[in-house]
Design goal:
The structure is a homodimer. In chain A, helix 11 runs antiparallel to helix 12. The radius of gyration of chain A is 20 Å and the shape is globular. Chain A is about 50% helix and about 10% strand. Chain A is an alpha/beta fold.
């Protein structure tokens, strides 16, 4: 590459953050990975491994773990945020004290904040001076990417400069990066698909069959499109990598946490035990509640989301939910779009 | 049911035709199944089985196999056609001699005719006096439905009377029937998705990973939407049961013929042997050629369809095709719709 190497900061040393740092470093860029855990930091810097986040991965020497935010941000050309949705605001508050207003920030988080039901970019704008931002989302199971398998992803932003920077930092024959101008739609699809994946995991575990699983996923996709459209997204975004693409990978992969949550619930395991056993965040568990709240605010019926929410938080047995969803009243196969947006 | 029982004719005693006949009969309707094979006919009428088409199924006594078309058509309230695409015209020619012009006909065939690249409803209208017609399509793997597993499907027609008849004949808590007014879109999605399923089967066999498989399916979906739109379909139809729903089931199910064709090709087995071993029609093998021809006529690029066509008919190795598709130039994640239609 004839362009100069970048300096890229990555916030979040979990599964996806660590994998992203590795991809950036592999392209020859200096990569600062914010990592609060001293043991993990030591392993990254001294042994070039991070067994807690990506078992088996040998990290590039260009990935440097940092305890503090300031040195990660200082001098960076681009900041990638891979922070769980419920910790996102707190990290933004810390970031606010050190981030310059012209630093491009791209988040890679698929979720809503509890209670506020805000998207991550909304929190970023409310808590920091950052105004040039984007989102990276798509069928990107980190475990596969860390093993060198190929994938496609979407960067959605209103800033062409950010799309170019993300390409320079990350694009390769292994990670194909596509463009979108629908930031809102990409964020909403990324958050909502996790709920559909929980439903698919339930249907799978119950051996409902591939027809029934495809039926449920399609109904979920329809509700996703309607809700995202009502919230100001372009409906076509749901047909892209961040929508149906991500849904497809999430519903197929044994690595998907949300899918595993659905399967465990179908076996009758209580949610608390499922999450404890998982040991990681399953974003769909939070997103179900936000999706239902947002739909209610817009007078929109989202039966699949409502049933999953009831399984997660109101003890509705998974088998009853799947049976009820299979017997919902029939009607138009796909909704009409093009009318008025319900919410903004 | 307080409504009188219908008389329903089913043309085609294969996997899907036999399953449909069973569903109709189970609802209490008299069902005439056109079956040209004397042994199969004898088994259906005397032993209530049809091991060659649906192994293990015990047929309702209300399914009656008929050797001739005339008695199947005479007195029928509704005709269902489950005939392979390449035999569809010949059956229409026979049907033309016995069918009354006001008989509602619903076909259940997912393919194009070779060379003419026509949809099944186009052939029906050209060869017969039938003018009230529809299509039934969706994630409906026959083997699962015959085993009593639930599914959803779409009936697309311009005639509300036909949608009502199909519901009376087939709808149940096991088979949920949704509506569409986009006959063209439902036919196109049903035919095109089989080509994408071949690509998914290849990626699966090559262990390209769930990210890559989802990427390829999404690119295929995008090309499907663009081509269907160019041919006069509504793009949203691809997001429904007949589009992404069917694609999802086809790409997941071990029973899918097209998926199996893709997997066998990836193992290096020549197409002729694959089809011989399968012993059944894999519609995607024909649909790939038609899709490419239709796209060429509209100056539309469909790289995924083109690569699969080359694997099928020009000896391009499957591994090379998948590698090339993973490295196609990037760009917009989803195409813009709403401009002019390219073809009609």
């Amino acid at each position: 590459m004839s362009e100069r190497a970048l300096q890229v900061g990555v916030l979040g040393a979990g599964n996806w953050g660590t994998t992203l740092a590795q991809l950036v470093a592999t392209k020859g860029h200096a990569t600062q990975l914010w990592c609060r855990d001293p043991e993990q930091r030591h392993a990254i810097n001294e042994q070039h491994t991070s067994e807690v986040s990506v078992p088996g991965l040998v990290l590039s020497g260009k990935v440097h773990a940092e305890a503090e935010l300031a040195p990660v941000v200082a001098g960076s050309d681009l900041l990638l945020m891979a922070i769980p949705s419920q910790a996102f605001r707190e990290v933004c508050r810390q970031l606010a004290t050190v981030v310059p207003p012209d630093l491009p920030v791209v988040h890679c988080t698929k979720g809503f904040e509890n209670d506020s039901n805000l998207r991550m970019s909304e929190i970023l704008v409310r808590e920091t001076c950052v105004r040039q931002f984007g989102v990276l989302s798509g069928p990107n199971i980190a475990t596969e990417i860390a093993r060198g398998k190929p994938a496609g992803t979407v960067v959605a932003t209103r800033f062409p400069r950010i799309a170019r920077l993300v390409r320079r930092a990350l694009a390769s024959s292994q990670l194909r990066i596509f463009d979108s101008d629908d930031l809102r739609g990409v964020e909403l699809c990324g958050a909502l698909k996790n709920v559909v994946a929980i439903a698919a995991g339930m249907a799978n575990e119950m051996q409902a069959g591939d027809n029934a699983k495809a039926f449920l996923i399609t109904r979920g996709m329809t509700e996703m499109m309607q809700l995202a459209f009502a919230l100001g997204a372009q409906p076509a975004t749901a047909a892209g990598l961040a929508g149906i693409g991500d849904l497809m990978a999430t519903c197929a992969s044994p690595y998907s946490r949300n899918h595993r949550v659905g399967a465990a619930l179908a076996r009758g395991i209580p949610l608390a035990s499922v999450l404890h056993e998982l040991g990681m965040v399953a974003e769909g568990v939070y997103a179900a509640r936000s999706a239902c709240a947002l739909a209610r605010a817009g007078n929109l019926r989202v039966p699949l989301f409502e049933h999953i929410e009831r399984v997660l938080h109101e003890d509705l047995p998974a088998a009853k939910a799947v049976a009820a969803l299979m017997e919902l009243p029939t009607g138009r196969d796909v909704p009409r779009f093009g009318g008025q947006q319900l919410l903004q």
